[in-house]
Amino acid sequence: MDRIIKGVCFDKKARISLIDVTEGARQGVLTHDMSPLSAACYARALTVGAYINANLKSKTDRFNLIIEGSGAVGKIYIASEDGDLKGFVEEPHADLPLNNGKFDIEGAVGSVGEMIVVKDLGLKEPYIGRANLVSGNIADDYAEYLLKSEGIHSAVALSEYITKDGVQAAGGIIVEALPDAGEDVIFILEDVMGYFTSLSKMMTERSMEDIAEFYFGHLNAEIFPAEPITYGCHCDRKIVDVVRSLGKEEAEDIVREQGCIEISCDYCARKYRFDAKAVDALFKNGKNN
Ligand SMILES: [Zn+2]
Q1: Distance (Å) from CA 234 to ligand 1 centroid
Q2: In the 8-state DSSP scheme, what is residue 226?
Q3: CA of 264 to the centre of ligand 1 (A)
Q4: Sorting pLDDT into bands at 50, 70 and 90, what band is 76?
């Protein structure tokens, strides 16, 4: 099961998170029939999303992460509802030549664009943070976002191991300096990234607890129990409202012209069909528009 392990290190001046989204990335690949390159971009965004989600205060809080790059994979959307994560990429079949034997994630996402995070924390207005993309590898872009938009110094490593048989491992490590961290911690953070090479390969061989110990054991780390990462789309609860929002007249027009109203969910690819009878019933036993 996918999990996030949180902890603190550097005398509690930094927070660490180890994130495993292997199952979620696999699920996404199956649902959207993603190419390996699209899957790699998706897995990275999903890791960031899992991190944002795990740091929301309440289960009713929600977020949207939108990576709006100029590359072949198009926009990437990750969101949560009731604690469950979901997501998709605009172009699931992106394909570019390997770059030095690796997926060209920078090329697929594109280095020109924006990362946008919207958090609905149950307040009047949602929180909206945004930062320009800096590299397109999503890791540097999220670190830049944290600094520019939330004033947090961090080290972000995202890693995926994808073979022709699919996603073998995907996840990441995010280290955030806490507000009372001094220059020294921030300096170490910049350095620490070099440690996290081949993380996803390691994830196929060791538990996340082992990896936490391996990377942070010597840094006076305190590691907390893992929390599960869950996935799901709850569009079925809202689909009727989507049809209602068309209004009775327009809904009936569509049925007349096309035989039925068909809606498919971008996140989970579920398809909904409302024929004349269903539309009729929908506007009869509810609000009129
Ligand atoms: Zn859905």
Answers
A1: 6
A2: P
A3: 8
A4: very high
